[in-house]
Amino acid sequence: MIKRFEFSLGNILEYRKQNEQRIKRNYTALRQELSSKENEAERLSIEKFNLMDVGELTVGRMQVQQRYLIELDRRIGEIKTESLELQNKVEMALQEVVQAQKERKVLEKLEEKQHLVYLQEIKHEEQKQLDEMGNRSKFAF
């Protein structure tokens, strides 16, 4: 009777696959957050640029515009700082993804090797059975 192949570290491999997926989701979320921050900084920069082109030049309007420009500059600087921090987190998350993939691939290679050994054992066992059947027919006459 031929036994079914079962990878001895199958549970660990499955855990590593799930862990890798979790790490990839985290990496994707961080990249999306970084992209959102960069888009927001770009939007504020465009708003600042457009604010410079105002036709009405009263003292009150200029003061309000000046305060708003200062606030825009502050907010853009804040977003850029947040973006740098997020960029570091994204790079660290990418390293985690690479490490998780390496750990998974090591087990998959081991599984392949064990499967090849299993197939060789099956082939050997089948050959043994064929040899026995061939020997029986010789002695049956």
What are the key terms here?
88% helix; single chain; 141 residues; mainly alpha; 2 helices
In words, what does this structure look like?
By secondary structure, this protein is mainly α. The protein has a domain at 10-104. Helix content is 88%, strand content 0%. It has two helices and no strands. The chain has helices at 10-51, 59-140. Helix 1 packs antiparallel against helix 2 (59-140). The mean pLDDT is 91.
Structural class: mainly alpha
Order of helices and strands: HH
Q: Major sheet: size, sense and barrel closure? A: none
Tell me the number of helical segments per DSSP (H or I, 4 or more residues long). Answer: 2
Shape: rod-shaped
Strand content is: under 5%
Count of individual beta strands: 0
Q: Helix proportion of residues, in percent?
A: over 70%
Concise synopsis of the structure shown:
This protein is an all-alpha fold and 141 residues long. It has helices at 10-51, 59-140. Helix 1 (10-51) packs antiparallel against helix 2 (59-140).
Strand and helix layout:
Elements lengths: L9 H42 L7 H82 L1
